[in-house]
Amino acid sequence: MVVRGILKGLARSPTQGRSGDKALLSPTGSASVRHSSANSDMLARQAVLDEFEQAGFSWLWSTDSEGRLSYISPGAMAKAPALVGKLLTSVIETDPENPDERSGRPLTFQISAHCRISDLVVRFTGAAGNDLRWWALSGQPYMLPDGTFAGYRGFARDVTSEYRRKREDSRAAAFDSLTGLFNRHRMTGRLDAVLAAFRPTGQCCGLMMMDLDRFKHVNDTMGHPAGDELLRQVADRLRTVVGDRGEIGRMGGDEFQIIMPNFDDRGQMGELAAKLIQMVSQPYAIDGKRAVIGASLGIAVAPHDGDTREALVASADLALYAAKNGGRGQFRFFSSELQDEAMERSVLNHDLREALVREELELHYQPVVRIDDNMVVGFEALMRWNHSERGAISPSVFIPIAEESNLIVPLGDWALRQACTDAAKWPQSVRLGVNISSVQFANPSFVATVADALEQSGLEPQRLELELTENVFMRDTELVDEAFAALKGLGVRLALDDFGSGYSSLRYLQSAPFDTLKVDRSFVATCAADDQNSAKIISAIIGLADALGMETTVEGVEAFDQLEVVRDRGAKQVQGHIFANAIPVVEVNRHMESGALKIEPNGPSRHRIERRAVFRRVGIIHDDHRYEAVMRDLSRVGARIDGLLGVPVGTNLVVDLGGGQLAVSVVTRSQGPVIGVEFETPLTSDGAGGLCTRHRLSPMMLAVANAASEAAPKGRQQFMEVAVRGSRDHG
User: Fold this and answer.
1) Is the pLDDT of residue 718 over 80?
2) Same-domain status, 409 and 484
3) DSSP calls for 540-592
4) Domain span at residue 525?
5) Which SS3 state, helix, strand or coil, does residue 351 take?
6) pLDDT for 380-405, tens place per residue?
7) Are 699 and 686 in contact (CB under 8 A)?
8) CATH number of the domain that 666 lies in?
9) Phi-psi domain of 504 (left: phi exceeds 0; alpha: psi -120 through 50; beta: other)
10) Which one-letter DSSP state was computed for residue 300?
11) Which of 457, 430, 444, 455 is nearest to 367 (CA)?
12) Sign for the pseudo-dihedral over CA of 506, 512, 515, 519
């Protein structure tokens, strides 16, 4: 009877059903004949359906008016009879990845609205993993003669094979076959969709572009299969770090992209970027060998840095380019100045090629002081560039340019030879430290250059200490070990510079013959603060070096409170402004001739958070007025601003740093036209040594705010603007 009801429900519409019932109830003899004929037809149909169910091509199902299964063909699955009486929506589920399902309406909605169901792909939720089957479900609502909904009548067919094939094809079109991450096609479509959805509301979307550093070297030295395995491991690490905060794609080769919808906190983005770089840069185990790579990362945020896919990707790419040019192994946020920077770098690259010929480069030397008696035990050679037209150019600017263009090799060789020549004239108790770029270290002729510099200058090898960073390990392990052995064979000392700033693998200390660890200045900057973690790290590094028979030098000591902390933590040698800045060789020689190898510390009693000297036009917003002023210096927590007279301490201001960057502040110091402000929310790193706000107002919100400000009535101006002059104005 149930099968007959299903057949009846599928074979007629509600209107047809009612007219048919009237014919069956007719009292005439002809009606009896028709009734007998109808019974024969129904029996024949039932026989056909029984054979149909037994053949297993499809199966039938029905529900009552409450949506509970009232019938399901026994051949549908092993436990089909046990499903009768359960809600249909509780025992089947649709596939969110169904490549053919585009309606966007859930099954529960369709059934509650009594919609017709046509070839909806489902599976039973209770099916075991090895019994997973997919069915195309069809059905239509069944109505009683009075129009009351009586449930569904339907059938289903097994589409497992074709559906799995279709899903695999769909996945292949959206996923990278090597890493399992989204591919370029999927990421392009996804970014378009996110930006289109966010554009009307002005919501933000972060985009990260990441390139692997020295991946080509792995491919060349270990083979492409090893390179493929490395990419798979990189993908696993990216998934672990990013989690559900973003969508990750491999755009091809060693380029990756991360979309972060509704994300605009640049502080959190910077922290995530730093974590990604750190994790990706950890060594990889591949076929019993170790591979070491690095990563560089560029970040752009819509709609501030572009509200279309093309514009946003171009901004992120430019930021990535800046990060790679800045020395690799770092992240960089996009800023409007990057286009100018790219052009500036090109000009400086050309000028740097002529700098040696023009004798614009020179070496300055910063003392390394023994902390017990303040005696100078060595000097670190630092390169300086005095441009004929631009004046002094910071090493943080020209050294990355030299490394990117491979000019670092001739520049580094010159510095090494010149430093050895200078140091040969000093007392034998004074050592020389020379920084060696990873690019210079990787040059096959580097060891020969060191040997030649020692021979030509006459400097004793044990007085030369080559300062290396962890980047030197980003090459074939055997080649690195051979270079170390050759250098130790010459008798020179080796120092691991900036220890603690990277991933500081203990494997380096186990395998590399270092004589000195140089504690990174970032720990010293905060070691005297209330948070004692930096001091504990300094203590741990010194203890580790002592256990391994190495010396330590603590860099960046500037104030007496820092000096006291590092002394208490066991430091033996320090280097920093509290003793001396880097000075020209003429001054070094003058000290040597007078025998003045003792330097008394001289500096502030307490270290202040670094403030960057600037001369930058900013807007100051107070009540309904906007004032123009000049920011003289800047730190994470505050700034010194010149150009407003009569601002009382305690006044709440908003500092407009440009580009939607508004910093809510309070005046903490006021003297004439100069005020000091403290930010309500500390600024965050922009990845390039600068600072930026964590959040920005979108262009849409800025336009609305400006329009409202212009329309609002103006109150009395409370402060007086004072003209400020400066030698440089970066706007």
Assistant:
1) yes
2) yes
3) HHHHHHHHTT-EEEEE---SHHHHHHHHHTT--EEESTTT---EEHHHHHHHH
4) 358-594
5) helix
6) 999 999 888 888 888 878 888 888 77
7) no
8) 2.40.10
9) left
10) E
11) 430
12) negative
